[in-house]
Design a protein that fits this description.
Blueprint: E1 2-8, H1 13-30, E2 35-39, H2 51-59, E3 64-66, H3 77-80, E4 87-88, E5 103-107, E6 110-118, H4 130-141, E7 147-153, H5 157-167, E8 173-177, E9 187-188, E10 194-196, E11 203-204, H6 213-222, E12 235-245, E13 250-260
Parallel strand pairs: 1-2, 2-3, 3-4, 6-7, 7-8, 8-10
Antiparallel strand pairs: 1-12, 5-6, 9-10, 11-12, 12-13
Length: about 260
């Protein structure tokens, strides 16, 4: 039995949410998807998430939502996160942070565990070592799930690559998010772990990482503060499509999936 999993990259604002709602039902059918996971930490106006938005994304056909360094950007989310199933915050945040540090989703009798670790290079949130956290989470989850998918939400490609090699053969996939630009390095590592430095952004690509171009360029030129609105043009859904051999929970194939609006 072969299983298929789609990991959707950072959903940015309403354009990202809309293309997921519009295209995901057909994608599930066309690609015979068993599992859909999405990072939605930029879903609310480009920064953070709300309870209402999380529910709408899940209703669109997403099985599990992960978050990143913008996890607490929206006021009140810290009170809502524990009330919504199928949403988890980064596992290497302090234990006092609310919310689940992992999720387990099941289809066709096959259980997939998912958790996120924040990188620490060039990142602002207080977080434990992503390598040691991943080791701890794998020990905790390996008896509870048939496959484990690890998301590393990080700036540095070196940190992402290093974690991929560190976990090769111990998890089904290590997938990078946060930088919003899909990378051309999708591969199955020697011991069966699918890896990709960044699965890309789901949102407007006629932009600078999802934001209107003009104010971002102006900020680089003169350094003055400006409001960065979410852009609206060239909307795409971007993610990693992974085929999993259910008998050994090894990744058989990984490729970038891009869908234009």
């Amino acid at each position: 039995m072969m299983l298929k999993l789609l990991f959707i990259g950072d959903i940015v604002g309403r354009p990202g949410r809309d293309i997921v709602a519009e295209r995901l039902p057909r994608l599930r059918t066309e690609h015979s998807l068993d599992f859909v996971i999405a990072n939605a930490e930029n879903a609310a106006a480009g920064a953070g998430i709300t309870g209402a938005i999380a529910k709408s994304i899940l209703e669109s056909g997403v099985d599990a939502i992960t978050l990143g360094d913008h996890v607490w950007d929206q006021r009140g989310w810290e009170n809502e996160i524990t009330q919504i199933e199928h949403v988890c915050r980064p596992a290497n945040l302090p234990a006092s942070n609310p919310g689940w540090d992992h999720l387990i989703i099941e289809k066709r009798g096959f259980r997939v565990a998912i958790f996120t670790v924040l990188g620490r290079t060039f990142m602002g949130l207080k977080a434990d070592c992503p390598f040691l956290c991943a080791d701890r989470m794998i020990e905790q989850l390996k008896a509870q799930a048939d496959a484990i998918v690890v998301e590393i939400h990080a700036e540095a490609t070196s940190e992402k690559q290093a974690l991929g090699w560190h976990l090769d053969g111990r998890v089904t996939a290590v997938l990078g998010t946060h930088t919003h630009v899909p990378t051309a390095d999708a591969t199955v590592l020697p011991n069966g772990t699918a890896f990709m430095c960044d699965v890309g952004m789901t949102g407007p690509y006629a932009s600078v990482l999802g934001r209107d171009v003009r104010p971002v360029v102006a900020r680089f030129i003169d350094g003055m503060p400006r409001r960065f609105e979410v852009a609206t043009e060239d909307v795409r859904l971007s993610g990693a499509l992974i085929e999993i051999g259910a008998s050994m929970a090894r990744a058989e194939k990984i490729e970038l999936l891009t869908v234009r609006r």
